[in-house]
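Technical note accompanying the year-one report. For the benefit of new consortium partners, we illustrate the data format agreed upon in the data management plan: each record pairs a sequence with a structure-token string. No post-processing was applied to the example shown here.
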Amino acid sequence: MSSLGRASVVIGAGTMVSRITGLLRSIVLVGVLGAVSSEAADAFTFANTLPNSVFSLISVGVLTAVIVPQIVKATADADGGNAFISKLFTLGTVVLVATTAVATIAAPWLVVIVAGRAPLDAQALATALAYWCLPQILFYGLYALLGEALNARRIFGPFTWAPVVNNVVSIIGFLLLGALFAPVPTQASGWTTGMITVLGATATLGIALQAVVLLVFWRRTGLALKPDFRWRGVGLGTVGKLAGWTFLMAFASLAAGVLQGNIVSEASGSGASATVAANAWLIFMLPYSVIVLSIGTPYFTQISEHAAARRDDEVRGDIARSIRTLLFFIVAAVAAVAAAAIPASRVFTSSADDAEAAALVLLSYLVSLIPLTILFIVQRTFYAYDDTRTPFWFTIFQCGLIVATALAAWGLLEAGAIPLTGLAAAVALGQSLASTVQTIVATWLLHRKIGGLGIRSWLAAITRFALAGIPAGIAGWLVFLAMGGSSGWTAAEKIPGALGTALIGLVVVVVYVGILAAMRAPELQTASALLRRLRPRG
């Protein structure tokens, strides 16, 4: 295989294992803390979301868009980029330490921002856990800096596989919490200092070890890191100009997400709230991560090469081919997840009734999986043309819609039009609608920028996939009903739920591929060739 093919296999395998262990982590956490109507689970979700949110702002706004290209350029220096990277790491560490300190001090206020509608006991527990969790900002940042530097030196494996260490440590810690304090109370008022210490320390230890793993592989880069506070020449002015649009875009997305979480927190302890929404998003992101990121990233590289050479006709061809290929897999995933929504949700809940409530949130998110797949290629095509301003504006537009739909959901709740148990699903559906409109606007803007995008070929392909996906989804749902439906064995416990999900998914895929084969869909041959290239060779 080519080096790119081998890298794709490593990244794809690492992503798959990381996501699967992440699912297991969430399953264990639900088993210990519960999910629906659990103040303790929601409090931990609120606290653990804070460092992730701050890190996302730093990572998306600066690291991915700006720092990574700077590291790649620096590797061409006479010293292989050693001096530049040492200065960059010193500056980055100082910024991360300062950010972590300020965020930790501000923990009570940050909790109010993300969970201000939750019961006071839940907010108090979230604040106590936040003091343990917010130091993760430093370790997340170091993990990103180290990982991107390794990737720039074409050492791809560690960055992708390191999160598995975090997931394993978390699983062990959660099991320890359950063993020491069983039964762990779901109400926040029943928590003790010992419980808080075990849970908070476990969460942060996993992130710290995730960063340490990358240090073990640092020797492969051939670089010697050392503190260097002579920051002149790092190019902060250039970095600031480049990062401006992407940082503002990340901040807007973060602000919209915080508002959503604040509104959903009103259901904490009374129904599907923050933990259920987080687990539904985790299931939703599994096909997106494995399919879109693994297959779409190499396409993005090709689009970037053709865009740099100003070969717009080839860019348009790349866009059409990549979207058709991705949608071939994604439509099958949508049909499978929709048919198995209840057993899949049962894996992350404590009862069949809770699974039904969580499945509604999952289905609400699932509406946007196809639009987000298209958006992945469209948005990155703008990046390939060094245009970060246009994505900023259509993301701001989406954030405005997210805010409007979240406030509308809250208004419907206050008016009694929806029950408190349906608040999280209403907010999730609003986000899906916002993402769908965003994709339409972004596609139109890209069409104006580079001309025809082969949209007719997308629509023809989507029609074929829908003609296969809808019957396949129905077949999967009939299998679910034949196994007893919500009162059957697939919704009885977590392991049967996982087995039922796999069985339903298998039926959906077989029917989907069979119908497309009968239709002689041209994408079948493309997908088969792609899978053969990704298969490791002896």
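Partners are asked to follow this layout when depositing records. The chain has a mean pLDDT of 83.
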